[in-house]
Fold:
Amino acid sequence: MPKPFNQLVVADMRKVYSDKWCVVEKDELPLSVADMDLPIASEISTALIKHVRDGTLMYSAKQGIPGLKEVVANRLAVRYGWAIEAEQIQPLSATVPGLFLSVSSVTKPGEGVMVQTPVYTPFFEAIEYTGRRIVPVPLSQPGYRVNREALEEGWTPEVKALLVCNPHNPVGRVFTESEIETLANFALEKKLWIISDELHADLVLDGEHRPLANVSSELAQKTVTLYGPTKAFNFAGLKISFAITANRKLSEKMKLRARGSAEAPNTLAQTAALAAYTKADPWLINTLNYLRKNRKRIGEIVAETPDLEWIPPEGTFLAWLDFRKLGLDDPAQNLQELAGLVLERGSRFGKLGEGRGFARLNFGTSQPILDAALDRLQDATAIIRKQV
Structure:
């Protein structure tokens, strides 16, 4: 049986060979890479163990193991009121390949792709590495809001697509109904394709998630939605995602383009996804409540730490911390050097300097580990205040 969340300590995680924990020095504490430290649901591990014991590790079903796409479609209908057909769902090896696949499928080299910043780094890579042109449009302040005027200012006739991240990484916004309508109307008026990364949809802490493609049937024909279980149910290492579009012509194009670059997820990933969506929602409910407690704890520390600010995230397990009042250009570097606390550099999430002075903290961990990290954060900021 996995340990209860609160019993998970740093010594446990140092035994884990992961991208987050295996690349840091022995005294460093990483709250960086965006997967949770929390043990997965027992229903998922039981399904994986059974599958391995059955000895069936052959090539995976390209269009999903029996029932998987139907389960995904039912989940979207029940949770978000989004009625789709199973054949509109394309299983993928991961969400990042899905970004690359989607961008290359709806645009041509040299065309502009609009992205609201700051945002998850692979958004930029999916545009730039496929020969398209990044068109950054900062989310409006205060509060990182969708702003129609900013979108209009960034648009030119060469812009053919809009990338959206909702719930948003790194700032944790869950866009309101009004903001979703703004994005939908703008895209339709400008005849833009929408690629909507909704990977964190099941990790909403406040408010409600609304799929962009569910605004209208017209918009659904112009939208690719990326959705999946790996963030919410914490098995990112297995790699599985789903690309969803009602546009049959685009769907066929994406299936052809996926060959060799965004292949079907492996059989264990599909097994885990099916178990997550059919059996593990009680684990998810418990995890969301745990994340809310962690968020509250961060809020308490921010309130008592001079010159540190944040906007509490409405979704995800990511905190976007603002160190600008301390005069820090790269706070993640300062925190690592002074306290051995490893966070994600804010500069990675922007193209116009939007992330300068920020760092992203992953609070998808146990409360003892989070408290240890927050102690280091306070110690480091105290040193910095004495220096300035």
Notes: The longest helix spans residues 281-304. The first strand starts at residue 29 and ends at 30.
